[in-house]
Specification:
306 residues, mainly alpha, Alpha-lytic protease prodomain-like, Alpha-Beta Plaits, 2 domains, three-stranded mixed sheet, 8 helices, elongated
Length: 306
């Protein structure tokens, strides 16, 4: 029975891998196709959509990596595990996309001033093809998106890509029918600005995580809650940071009344319950002491003190 369960679970994981890799492959294919078609047809909108697809492809790859590595155990070389792989990838991807989009905007502005002829047939055909692929990818991800945040994010990316492709499809129709070539650079600028807006948000967030910036917590309230616990005298030298965008690490010095180790364990359990349930902190490290630190600031700033 257990062998059958293991076999079924392995089959399920293999099925999910195939689905993820199918979506990644299809998106890479359409991104490359749109870049080539955009260059041939002189459509900056297609090139913009290609890089938007590429952005979302990288996001899906990050989700896939996170899913693969989520079960990988920490080791002596990586004591925190592999959670930051996705953050590093997101950071690099954001910088790359912002640079590309700035270039596209500059080129599109030139075309707004002096519109160029566009092969609307290629634009129409490729945008239709992109729309069909994006909708298909969204359909593949739909069921699992209800139960998994990574899959949901990827699903929403595909829905967004579908709308972009649809906008280009409609735009190419008007270009073909009315020769409104100015629509192409307008779409390019709008899409590029949207991508930059999204990328800056990801860039700032990933940068803060890599810099081990503190989590957005009410530290004064945390101090009050912990110091209400029987046996706690003072809380100081608090540190917090993110392992990835969902995992919060927290450490602090806890001054207690002189007591047995067994009593400090009970205090630890009470603090742990407050931090995990009220503040949703995942990983907690506490240093218990009795009147050891001369500096008892909440955030330790005097680096010269030992």
């Amino acid at each position: 029975m257990s062998h059958k369960h293991h076999h079924t679970e392995r089959d399920f994981e293999n099925e999910k891998k195939i689905e993820f890799l199918s979506v990644i492959s299809l998106n890479l294919f359409i991104s490359i196709a749109e870049i080539i078609a955009g260059i041939i047809s002189q459509s900056m909108a297609l090139v913009s959509d290609a890089f938007h697809n590429l952005e979302d492809t990288v996001s899906i790859i990050i989700s896939y990596i996170a899913w693969i590595f989520s079960s990988k155990e920490p080791n002596f070389k990586r004591t925190y595990g592999y959670k930051r792989i996705e953050i590093i990838a997101a950071f690099v991807n954001s910088i790359f996309l912002i640079g590309i989009c700035v270039f596209i905007i500059l080129e599109s502005i030139k075309r707004l001033i002096k519109p160029e002829n566009i092969n609307s047939d290629i634009m129409l055909l490729v945008s239709l093809f992109a729309f069909v692929i994006n909708i298909s990818c969204a359909y593949i991800l739909h069921n699992e998106s209800k139960n998994n945040l990574n899959w949901k994010a990827s699903y929403l990316h595909m829905i967004g890509d579908s709308f972009f492709s649809l906008a280009i499809l409609v735009g190419s129709f008007f270009i073909k029918k009315y020769n409104l070539y100015i629509i192409d650079p307008i779409l390019s600028v709008l899409m590029s600005v949207f991508i930059i807006y999204q990328s800056i948000s990801v860039l700032v967030k990933s940068f803060n995580i890599l810099m081990q910036s503190g989590a957005d917590l009410d530290y004064l309230e945390i101090k009050k809650d912990i110091e209400k616990i029987d046996g706690v005298v003072n809380v100081h030298h608090i540190h917090s940071w993110f392992g990835n965008e969902k995992t919060i690490y927290f450490e602090a010095h806890i001054e207690v009344k002189d007591c047995l180790v067994s009593q400090s364990s009970k205090i630890y359990s009470s603090i742990n319950e407050v931090l995990t349930k009220k503040y949703l902190i995942n990983h907690i490290t506490l240093q218990f002491e009795t009147d050891r630190c001369n500096n008892k600031e909440l955030i330790f700033t005097n680096r010269s003190e030992k």
